[in-house]
Amino acid sequence: MTEIDANIDGLVPAWLTLPDIAEELGVEVTRVRQLVKEGQLIAVRRGENSVLQVPAEFIKDGKVVKGLVGTLTLLRDDGFADDEMLEWLFTADDTLPGTPAQALRENRGTEVKRRAQALAV
């Protein structure tokens, strides 16, 4: 959980606080904190009060977006820090098209994982 820099903050279209995520997922805030701790979600401190927030695109239809956890694991295994993962997920890739985060939301996780694996080479 790192402080967000302006570049990444500008890439991510919308953020949710941990209580917002808990409400979306229908779980307690402690469970959301556990998901962050386990690396299944990325939370960063942002805003005036340095509140922990998660990109809104990571949640869809009351669940963590399919393929996100596996993608985060691949990126982490490639040595990416949280801020680098966010930058990669929210930077447009013409070959997808769109951003990896958008592709995951559109159930194109195989393509995203293929690109994440290629980063390790």
TrEMBL record:
<dbReference type="Pfam" id="PF21531">
    <property type="entry name" value="Rv2175c_wHTH"/>
</dbReference>
<dbReference type="InterPro" id="IPR041098">
    <property type="entry name" value="Rv2175c_C"/>
</dbReference>
<protein>
    <submittedName>
        <fullName>Transcriptional regulator</fullName>
    </submittedName>
</protein>
<feature type="domain" description="Rv2175c C-terminal">
    <location>
        <begin position="65"/>
        <end position="120"/>
    </location>
</feature>
<dbReference type="InterPro" id="IPR048576">
    <property type="entry name" value="Rv2175c_wHTH"/>
</dbReference>
<dbReference type="Pfam" id="PF18367">
    <property type="entry name" value="Rv2175c_C"/>
</dbReference>
<feature type="domain" description="DNA-binding protein Rv2175c wHTH">
    <location>
        <begin position="4"/>
        <end position="59"/>
    </location>
</feature>
